[in-house]
Amino acid sequence: MSVSEDVRNMKSVSPLVASADSAVRNEALRLAALALKEHQDEIFEANREDLQRAEKAGIAPAVMKRLKFDAHKLSDCLAGIDSLMALENPTGRITLHRQLDEGLILKRVTVPIGVIGIIFEARPDALVQISCLCIKSGNCAVLKGGKETASTNKVLFTLIEQAAIQAGLPKGCLLQVSAHSEIDELLTCDDSVDLLIPRGSNAFVRYIMDHTKIPVMGHSDGVCHTYVDKAADMDLAIPILIDAKTQYTAACNATETLLVHRGIADAFLPKAAKALAQAGVKLRGTQEVSEILARSASLSDCDLAAESSAASAPYPSGFAAEDIMTEEDFNTEYLDLVLSVKLVDSVEEAAAHINRFGSHHTDCILTQDDEAAMRFMALVDSAGVYRNCSTRFADGFRYGFGAEVGISTGKLHARGPVGLDGLVTYKYLLEGSGQIVADYASQAKQFHFKDL
Amino acid sequence: MSVSEDVRNMKSVSPLVASADSAVRNEALRLAALALKEHQDEIFEANREDLQRAEKAGIAPAVMKRLKFDAHKLSDCLAGIDSLMALENPTGRITLHRQLDEGLILKRVTVPIGVIGIIFEARPDALVQISCLCIKSGNCAVLKGGKETASTNKVLFTLIEQAAIQAGLPKGCLLQVSAHSEIDELLTCDDSVDLLIPRGSNAFVRYIMDHTKIPVMGHSDGVCHTYVDKAADMDLAIPILIDAKTQYTAACNATETLLVHRGIADAFLPKAAKALAQAGVKLRGTQEVSEILARSASLSDCDLAAESSAASAPYPSGFAAEDIMTEEDFNTEYLDLVLSVKLVDSVEEAAAHINRFGSHHTDCILTQDDEAAMRFMALVDSAGVYRNCSTRFADGFRYGFGAEVGISTGKLHARGPVGLDGLVTYKYLLEGSGQIVADYASQAKQFHFKDL
């Protein structure tokens, strides 16, 4: 069968999944955990194949770590399934209950979205997490994982699919696609797929967004900012900035641009530049920033001439010409130990820069001034707006959601880290006893609204 | 200035609108109502121009009624603004308040979406309603109304815009575009426009959906179903069916397809066909339906031969060949006094037909059987699923929302009739006191989640 046929079939069974009792869905999770444990040797063996192939292909050690699925990762997965089972059922919640007139009762009830396509990176634990989130929320899922872990994915998928069917969910409620060409076919299935969640490189996510009519949830860019206000506490600011930039540079919530209030720039920038240089961060920025650093470096050269040799100068002495930025460079996501730097005159200017050049992901103000913080948090139009902490906190686990399917920079439906809540929608149920609109149009009857 | 420049400017002022106090927004509404009242002669004069132009163009009387803006419509608009002012502010609501760790507090707060483009039919009262909904919810709005009421729209828009600015909202928070070519330019502004709400013909809405990267909220089709279950109360069923089909045939929530359980078809169909024929409804349907009607007509001819003449035969005697439908015809939205008819064997088959051929708008079961009703309401994947009442109830006013911007058949963000709630999104605000992720990654610190 082709992907389109499979997905059309999935669409037709999706109401059965949606209306399955939450006990059935939890039983599917319980059986999945059991199967993963029982078949762990099979899983580890498949993973060894993947790792050997990756090693031959010369894949970098840091990436290899993500491909690996060992006893430690399995135990994390099992703990994750346990906590997912304990979470409240996200469907069937009544969010509105209203009498429209006597005997005419309206309810708004949360329901699964339906059919969700998720394209994710080569990490076997992601397959477990995502498929279990979909089962818990009553959704059907089309899964496409990274090809580097194809063997592991195949074993994991089969175990979880069998557990779902054994628990009573209909055949076809989960689907794995593996060829890259199948993604293109999936993108055309806008009649059957309700939502796509692509994870991966910016270019890839952008490609998905540009080539489908299916709604897409995710983020292509993560240009996050840390703004050091004139009322910042410098002792807090530098560790936060180092964490935001360097704790995991490849993450979408790592800070890419440092904005500094002109009123604190002379005092703050040299200190920050020193700390950043020690952490291996290369600065790029405006001419003005370069001049401040050059000035402070020459001052410090004088002050410290006796102690410090030119070779180990702790202060960067301005930028090389290629590191001087123009305005239009400020939308760069480095995902590396590089940081853009710019000065601003006010909270308002910082917010305007962020709204224009940022990606509406996560942006932070460092300040002890409550009013400046409030203003910043009101003006910045991002999924996460922070004060006095690292932008790296933007994450479903750190928000206490238990698990996340991704982070959305879109403004509709779900924004920021997306957990179970983002995988449901609602429908309106109206129960009457023969009511017709003509009676209300002619005013023979009147509505009597009453929330129940 | 071009539309793109105007809209880019709007995007840059939108955070100021979003962060304006709700008192400022209500003041804008109050001033708008005042201005509409004070300048009513000017408005009526502009409307007379529109009506004269429409009359010359030979526009149908039913449409002319919608173009008209008189004292009665003005008073409806003013009452609408009054009730909007009284509604709770939809922004600034805290929907999550959680301690992540000591001194690290997360809030999820509702905020305006930002910049919304709304393209609506030639109805001056729609301009007032839509712009006021946007002001109330803190959104900037680009408005494009039907060209038939261009003169009225211009006066109304100017009055409301001036009121908004006088109340303290920034210049550029509202924008009116009038040329059709400007819509195409608007569709390209995906950097500045957060949401498009097109209202109008199916073909037009479909065109918008197919030609922009901006998220679109609305519905292109309204293929609604009424399913008469075998346990239906026929005395309730017929008036409901007549209302659902005929009370306003041009509405998206009018029933287009009648599904009937085979177990009740012989008893129900002839009665329904008679009532529908009397209401001027023409039936189309499957061969089987045609045969039942032909059979019952010939039976009734015998029974009633003495009383009824052939010319006034109250029962349709089957369909003409061109009214026999094949499976694929069942996705037709007639918006006219025509009804598709098909028989099914079960609630499940009815739901499967609706999910396949419907438009996920509003569908109803007529039954006295609670279990059948529950099953239907769980299986049908539509914005509204009803029991024992007319599909015509799908409407923001009838749901008690006070006002609506439209009805969404999409499943993400907002579904069904969309009121103020659909015009907001949320952001996460995180306030810390120096927290960095490295401390939690190294387990030097642990999260202590606590909902506040």
Give a summary of the structure in a few sentences.
The first copy, chain A, is built from 15 helices and 16 strands. By secondary structure, chain A is an alpha/beta fold.
Keywords:
homodimer; 452 residues; alpha/beta; Aldehyde Dehydrogenase, Chain A, domain 1; Aldehyde Dehydrogenase, Chain A, domain 2; six-stranded parallel β-sheet; four-stranded antiparallel β-sheet; 15 helices; 16 strands; 19% strand
Task: Spell out the blueprint of helices and strands.
The structure is a homodimer of 452-residue chains.
Chain A: H1 3-18, H2 22-38, H3 40-56, H4 61-67, H5 71-86, E1 94-101, E2 104-112, E3 115-119, H6 124-136, E4 140-144, H7 150-167, E5 174-176, H8 180-187, E6 195-198, H9 202-210, E7 224-228, H10 234-246, E8 255-261, H11 262-278, E9 282-285, H12 287-304, E10 338-344, H13 347-357, E11 362-366, H14 370-379, E12 384-389, E13 406-408, E14 416-418, E15 424-435, H15 437-441, E16 450-451
